[in-house]
Amino acid sequence: MSWKKINKEALGNGIAGCLLVVAFFGSLTQIRRTAQEVFDPTKKTISIAHWQLELGYRDALDKVCREYEKLHPDVKIRQVAVSEKFYGQVVNTHLVSGTAPDLIEMGFSTMVQMDQYLARYFEPMSGHIQYPNPYNNGTELEGVRWQDTFIDGMQSWYREALQEYYGIPSSAFTVRVFYNKDMFQKIVGHDRPPKTFGEFMNICEKIETSAKQEKTTLVPIAGSLYNSRIFFERYLNAFGSRYEPALDFGYDGGITGYRMYLGLRQGKLKWDDPTNKAAFELLHELSQHFQPGFMAVGREQAAFLFVQEQAAMITSGSWDAESLFRQARFKVGIFDFPMPAKDEKYGQYVRGRQSEAGTGTGGGFGLYRLSKQKEVALDFLKFFSSKRINQQFNQDITWIPVVVGTQPKENLKVFAPDPVGYASSFTWVWGSHSDEVYMGGLTQYLQNEISFDQFGKTILDALNDKTYGWYKAATLDYESMRNTVTMQEQLLGIVLSDHLFPKAIGNFDQKYREVLIRQTKMAQAQEEYRDRLQKGLSTTLEVK
After folding, report:
1. Does pTM top 0.85 for this prediction?
2. Long-range CB pairs of 127-131, under 8 A, 24+ apart, other chains included
3. In the chain, what is the greatest distance between 2 CA atoms, to the nearest angstrom?
4. Using CA of residue 496, residue 501, residue 502, residue 506, what is the dihedral sign?
């Protein structure tokens, strides 16, 4: 080996070693800087965990945090942004270990969704929201209870089983269809959105014809398992609302899996009913305008097709608006889901669009019960949910604000909840087993692998499965009700014990009465449910 070759190797190794040393000390410096920020003894540090990785969200939240820090120089706020794929695991682990962030976005976590964990790890808000938000002083909301400053009165954050409010909302969300206005102008001849389902399908056909002529891979709609369900649920509910008078036994505007199955057993609902058949024919026709294999495509891939102008339309929620606006190199339009007109195909079977009157608030943050800076974190929530800051934050990220009197950006007003329509929802699913079978059968049906009747048979067979069918679903529902009754009894004891500590609850008699009535109703419902199960619904169903 020559000295020249040895010197080259030594030089290369030396450079690599130097770079490694520089990287090490650079990392060490960054770690020290971060540690100083997080553990600065002169600052009250709070952390905010969330899964929002959409463009603009972290910048907008950081802007709010910096503005709060200017008002409170002794406070430092840091974000903990985690991918929604791992968010639940991270939150659960830190809650159990006692190291949870001070404020936690509510979702994707078992310990956020289940009442027993929610009560253990999160601060109940009833004692806080009964008083005015001081950061609303100088506005028309000055002196108004914090709870009443939200457009839904915080009903979305009320846990009935616990008789408590958990979390403070930040935004509201609805779903719409985004479309490429430039492409519409070029192919369709105008950039107006369709007003009816028939017009919608005509536009899709023109786009497909243009793609064939130009020999491109352009498709009318970018589909995925994620956003196709948004499409399908909207249209199924428009048809399914016709079943509400017969199947809404609870008179609450909902047709649950239990009510659906009972309707089947009583002959009030049939798979081959003309309304149900028309609904799935519409889904089949609609799905032909998605790209091939869309049910196996992820949400990000579908968005990529749209912004790269390989698809003319995509459906999603207001939460994706800013990302799509920023990435698209064309004019983006938005329209609501067009329903079949009365004189169009399917029109006679549609009762009406799904109402958004019950749209609640979202993007809420819960206060960690064991937070070392609970008062600071609570005060930040008040600042974050004040009228000025809530509007500023949501306009920065192009979301819908939730405080009374606030306004979204002009281009987002189409997302404003539309109260016109029917509140009922409909499902052919009862229990996890039938849900899996339904989605698998729907995929096969849309891909022309099975017929409508075969699809129906797979669903009814799943519901009648002796091991995983309706009886297991009913048993799990019953167990859930029984656990709720037990929790209500425990809650009664807690409310009575709180009577000894006047600062804990304001109106003791009202609180006790509410919990007692709730517990009594649940106990009666539990007994009725058990009686129906004991009578049995064990005979199988035929496809009708």
Report:
1. no
2. 127/504, 127/505, 127/506, 128/378, 129/154, 129/165, 130/506
3. 94
4. negative
Using the structure block, give the residue that is written with the tokens 């948004």: 230
Instruction: Please check whether residue 409 is in contact with residue 398, taking contact to mean a CB–CB distance below 8 angstroms.
Output: yes
Rounded CA separation 259/276 (Å):
16
The gap between the terminal CA atoms of the chain, to the nearest Å, is: 85
For residue 461, give both structure tokens.
């067979």
Mean pLDDT score, 475-490: 77
Segment 289-340, tens digit of pLDDT = 999 999 889 888 999 999 999 999 999 999 899 889 989 999 999 999 999 9
Q: Which of 506, 414, 465 is nearest to 126 (CA)?
A: 506
Contacts of 327 (CB under 8 A, 6+ apart): 55, 303, 307
The residue among 467, 190, 142, 228 whose CA lies nearest residue 219 is: 228
Map residue 232 onto helix, strand or coil. helix
Query: Domain 175-349 falls in which CATH fold?
Result: D-Maltodextrin-Binding Protein; domain 2 (3.40.190)
CATH topology of domain 39-172+360-415: D-Maltodextrin-Binding Protein; domain 2 (3.40.190)
Long-range contacts of range 263-269, CB-CB < 8 Å, 24 or more positions apart?
264/460, 264/463, 264/541, 265/537, 265/541, 268/243, 269/243
